[in-house]
Design goal:
By secondary structure, the chain is mostly beta strands. It is built from two helices and 13 strands; from the N terminus they run H-E-E-E-E-E-H-E-E-E-E-E-E-E-E. A twelve-stranded antiparallel barrel has the order 1-2-3-5-6-7-8-9-10-11-12-13.
Amino acid sequence: MKRTLLLLCILPAILFSQQHLLAVESPTLLEPGHAQIELGAAHFRQQPFPLSGLEGNLWKFGNLRFGISLSGYVELQADGTLLNLLDITNRHPAVNSGITTTNNPTADIGDFSLWTKFSVLNEYSTGIGFSVRFGIQLPNTSNESGLGIDEMNFFSSLLFQKHFVGMWTINAGLGVLGDPTLVSSQHDIFMYGIEYSIPVGEATYLRAQSSGRRGHSGIAVQHLSNAKLGLETNITDDLSIKLFGIKNFSLSDNAEGFELSAAYTFHVVEIKK
């Protein structure tokens, strides 16, 4: 009994939700008949995982994103990570400590998400770009690995864009997150994101982002915030490379790291006008 009371007292101080924040999404759709595939990797130092109590250096290999647009108004997307690999440096008392693997490092596939984005307003004809986006996150990562929570999550966002001394992108939306510690329980959250982009060369852009979430919270679903700063370079009209430095600054997550990815856009089908 004493051990249980101690665990309940310390968990809120050391844990945060194991889902990472959503990236800032542009309201601009791909050209009709085109698709884009993006592949990358990321690294985070001292990344905590609340449900299992694990903490360590996280590598994300094969960060995959795919989008396809078959009209000027709808784009279908999917994203996820092919391999999460955690080099464990600390094990804290946690809800899932008893069933979490003792392997070090521990690894598993990442959660994948499916999205639909609808264009509502075009900035060049109305003065502001506006789209809506709906998505579902699948529980692909197992809780036994210590990296997953086995919960399905739902998201909806409003996406805005405006050119003004550079380009501003703003996201605002709602999420419904499952609570892995309570049966038939959910948390309703507000999500936000903002990005400022400015050219620093003929084909290079400086991008600064910040995103977060607020709302209902629990032992394993807490408030999160982060900031990103990086560059995007267009190698050709169809190929671009992005590099971001990342810093999390919520009370329960101070991990920092980087993301590196390459995106390639290609024609898939001819759209009749």
